[in-house]
Specification:
By secondary structure, the chain is α/β, with parallel strands linked by helices. It contains 15 helices and 15 strands. The protein folds into two domains: about 190 residues, Glycogen Phosphorylase B (Rossmann fold), CATH 3.40.50; about 180 residues, Glycogen Phosphorylase B (Rossmann fold), CATH 3.40.50. Helix 8 packs across helix 13 and helix 11 crosses helix 14. About 45% of the residues are buried.
């Protein structure tokens, strides 16, 4: 094993899981530098030995903002890589999605090895949501870049078997490793509502609380949550939608149009509030719109499990989320837009406290199968 390897990890939005991965490299004596737009830590800070180069922040409020800030970040990284030591190996994470193409540039001109962490697969996501035309010129160009980028990578790591198969569709010669996401179950823990400041602040102590927390992005079916809230006529069932993203304005307009007083929208919560906001959920909603099942896996799934929430998965039955729900008996899966059946499930959870408790206990127990030990697997594969 070569302990003298040096790395640069590139990701515009550095979140908790990436911090865990970076820390493992630093703790094992590897010199690693981070190019990022922002760092969001939880209970574990970024190791002080890790050098950080702060660039433009990722802005996901609209698709145009995402594109512009992503392009600027990519150009900034290109400039920096040209003038950095060519002894560094580069680790790319797919935020922004086209950042990975710099890997081919660095290998061709500087003979630098690069590693890919594919946590969202593009252009598949864009094609599935009709943002770009299937088999159109842009899709063909992007697919061609993907094939070359994947084929030349030292390692490709993704987060589910479905995503691994989707990546392999670009070339039969591609080898893909799968490492599930994880959660620190000592940081996210169940908390009784009467002792939860978040639940008290938003008057949830005596209600069944249904929470969606995370990115309000194009691949997330937030509309179904609002439609179900419209159907349910029970003042003791409350819906909280927490986060930012391209769909936020659309969701706010739906709530106003329907005159819903059982839906509360809140901004993204700080790391200090996050454990309390998640623990407020009796039912945690995990969404993937149709077409995203094989190209994205929300990491919030594991956080909701650690908080001891029953899981309502709005997704296709073949998705990774649905398999988790079925395997661990932690809730139910329903296809998107199946409003009546989803409402029936929520009403059942309100009326059947024994079954709700069964799901919640199973969910917390299942979270212990997805621990920060998984971060060490990245180091083992990449460092060798």
């Amino acid at each position: 094993m070569n302990n003298n390897k040096k790395y640069i990890l590139i990701c515009q939005a550095t979140r908790y899981l990436i911090v865990d991965i970076l820390n493992v490299f630093a703790e094992n004596g590897s010199e690693i530098e981070l190019f990022t737009g922002e760092i969001r830590t939880a209970n574990i800070p970024l190791n002080s030995q890790i050098k950080v180069k702060k660039l433009i922040t990722y802005n996901n409020k609209t698709n145009l903002n995402r594109l512009i800030t992503g392009l600027i970040f990519t150009l900034q990284c290109l400039f920096l890589l040209i003038f950095r030591s060519k002894k560094n190996e580069i680790i790319f994470i797919t935020t922004p999605p086209f950042i990975i193409f710099l890997g081919v540039f660095c290998k061709k001109f500087f003979h630098q090895p690069y590693h890919l962490l594919i946590w969202d697969l593009y252009p598949d996501v864009l094609v599935n949501f009709n943002v770009i035309k299937k088999k159109g010129l842009l899709e063909k160009i992007w697919a061609g870049f993907n094939e070359k980028t994947f084929r030349n990578a030292a390692n490709i790591i993704t987060i589910s078997d479905n995503m691994a198969e989707a990546i392999k569709n670009y070339s039969k010669s591609i080898n893909v490793e799968v490492i599930s996401n994880w959660v620190d179950s000592a940081f996210i823990v169940p908390l009784e509502k009467e002792n939860n400041p978040f639940a008290i602040q938003y008057h949830q102590t005596d209600k069944l609380t249904v929470i969606y927390s995370g990115n309000l992005g194009e691949t997330h079916d937030i509309e179904t949550i609002v439609e179900v809230a419209k159907i349910i006529n029970n003042k003791n069932i409350s819906f909280l939608i927490i986060g930012e993203g391209a769909k936020k304005k659309k969701i706010e307009e739906l709530i106003i149009r329907y005159k819903l007083d059982n839906v509360i929208m809140l901004p993204l919560q700080s790391s200090g509030i996050l454990p309390k906001s998640l623990a407020c959920a009796d039912i945690g909603v995990i969404t993937l719109s149709q077409g995203a099942e094989n190209v994205s896996v929300p990491s919030k799934t594991y956080y909701m499990m650690a908080a001891g929430s029953a899981i309502l998965a709005l997704s296709d039955e073949k998705s990774e989320i649905s398999r988790l729900v079925e395997k661990y008996e932690i809730g139910e899966m329903h296809p998107s837009a199946n409003y009546k059946n989803i409402a029936m499930f929520i009403n059942e959870m309100f009326n059947n406290k024994v079954k709700l408790k069964f799901y919640k206990q199973n969910s917390r127990k299942a979270s212990f199968d997805f621990t920060p030990e998984n971060a060490k697997k990245y180091y083992k594969i990449i460092h060798g």
